[in-house]
């Protein structure tokens, strides 16, 4: 395995962890960085499989919270309602993702210009929403009604288009439907767990025969880098969002999308 592949996997893993839970599209960042680094992965599966590192990071940070919810299920209607809300929010993306998986990976993941344009458009939309004088009705994710959660799940389906951002779509949808910024980001965390785990499992199954030993090694390096960098983000994001909102992420999206288009124009 070439040293360049190891270095690229390390860089891409760090990018994955740093961007997975913020509304800038980790998939877009990993795919664009991989494109300019000349990094190739069978079926573009690297970008999805290293998400397991980010998944484990958020499970670690929220382990006590998850355990308390599980233990409260037999006796707490609020705990059962929250689990139902997460399941309902997860279902739309699970169904559409399973049906459209091959098209998404073979067509959309192979179109860097589209990814850049979606980054820019999504950045403009996120900035506009962040600046709206919205009056939140829901400030605690445990109080999200099932109907609200399902609608957030529909917004998550927009993230099937690389560059949209799973967290960006769910957060924007949540804000428009009456949540505050902190709880919108936190619900996105919880929704990420089944969504990312489902995407990881499906992609691993679909590409099980295409992966070699070297691919597994490169993915393992990316996984570890993603785990470490995601830990840092998950531990600090809610405080950052509470103080600064989502405008910095919107500006970053526009910058990266524009830089990507210029890079594609210059070097292809």
From TrEMBL:
Main location: membrane
Catalytic activity: di-trans,octa-cis-undecaprenyl diphosphate + H2O = di-trans,octa-cis-undecaprenyl phosphate + phosphate + H(+)
Membrane-topology descriptor: Multi-pass membrane protein
Family: Belongs to the UppP family.
Enzyme class (EC, first level): hydrolase
Pfam families, per the entry: BacA
GO cellular component, one term: plasma membrane
Domain of life, per lineage: Bacteria
Function: Catalyzes the dephosphorylation of undecaprenyl diphosphate (UPP). Confers resistance to bacitracin.
Organism encoding this protein: Pararhizobium antarcticum
Remarks, miscellaneous: Bacitracin is thought to be involved in the inhibition of peptidoglycan synthesis by sequestering undecaprenyl diphosphate, thereby reducing the pool of lipid carrier available.
Keywords assigned by UniProt, alphabetized: Antibiotic resistance, Cell membrane, Cell shape, Cell wall biogenesis/degradation, Hydrolase, Membrane, Peptidoglycan synthesis, Transmembrane, Transmembrane helix
InterPro entries found in the cross-reference section: UppP (IPR003824)
GO biological process: cell wall organization; peptidoglycan biosynthetic process; regulation of cell shape; response to antibiotic
Molecular function, one GO term: undecaprenyl-diphosphatase activity
Record EC number: 3.6.1.27
HAMAP family named in the record: Undec_diphosphatase (MF_01006)
Transmembrane residue ranges: 43-62, 82-100, 106-129, 187-205, 217-238, 250-267
Protein name per its UniProtKB record: Undecaprenyl-diphosphatase
Subcellular location: Cell membrane
